[in-house]
Amino acid sequence: MEKALQTMINNMPEKTGKSLDQWTSILKEKAFVKHSEGVNFLKKEHGVTHGFANTIVTLSKEENNSEDDLVTNQYEGKELLFPIYEKLHNKIEAFGKDVTITPKKTSVSFIRKRQFVLIKPATKKRIDLGLKLPEKPTTDRLGNSGPFGTMCTHRVQITSVNDLDDELIAWMKEAYEKAN
After folding, report:
1. pLDDT 10s digits, 149-178
2. Cα–Cα distance between 67 and 145 in angstroms, integer?
3. Nearest to 81 by CA among 130, 31, 126
């Protein structure tokens, strides 16, 4: 498990008054439909800070899924895209030992001090690659963030391993460097 996340979990009883297991039990009793509902509940009703609330809700939803299961499930029915994901993953991971990889239910975040890349299988034939490149102008290829909203500043639509060219890798590296 990622070192920073494990530290957060270890500090949870002291900082929030309860362990992750205790918080998970509380959330299961409420059965929130939306992630934000659980976060807001923990913040308003229990005085938990946003960072801890977000982590608690995320981990309570994913506790039965390993990181590998989360990624595998994203590419179910989209197996042709998996080699693209693997190549992106390997390129990004090679940027530095400080890259944290966080699979979620529908995407994978790559984080340094903050998220700089997000990979999401958008359709059966396309991966959307979100990039955090503040103040960089959009182009035909480096589009606006689209469905990513404020999580990313730009989006590149990828349909083939051949799309992973030097230009794309340079954008990912730039996003990595700006996330320091």
Report:
1. 888 999 999 999 999 999 999 999 999 999
2. 25
3. 126
The amino acid at residue 86 is: E
Mapped to the 3 state alphabet, what secondary structure does the chain carry?
Answer: CCHHHHHHHHHHHHHHCCCHHHHHHHHHHHCCCCHHHHHHHHHHHHCCCHHHHHHHHHHHHHCCCCHHHHHHHHCCCCHHHHHHHHHHHHHHHCCCCCCEEEECCCCEEEECCCEEEEEEECCCCCEEEEECCCCCCCCCCCEECHHHHHHCCEEEEECCHHHCCHHHHHHHHHHHHHCC
The residues pairing with 104 across neighbouring beta strands, listed in sequence order, are: none
Structure tokens at 36: 């934000």
| Closest by CA position to 162, among listed 87, 110, 76 | 87
Query: Are 128 and 157 contacting, i.e. CB atoms less than 8 angstroms apart?
Result: yes
Could you tell me which residue, 154 or 71, shows the higher pLDDT? 154
Q: Is residue 89 within 8 Å of residue 117, measured between CB atoms?
A: no
C-alpha of 95 from chain center: 17
Cα 9 to Cα 27: distance, rounded to the nearest angstrom: 16
Tokens (6 digits) for 171: 């954008």
**pTM score, whole prediction:** 0.65
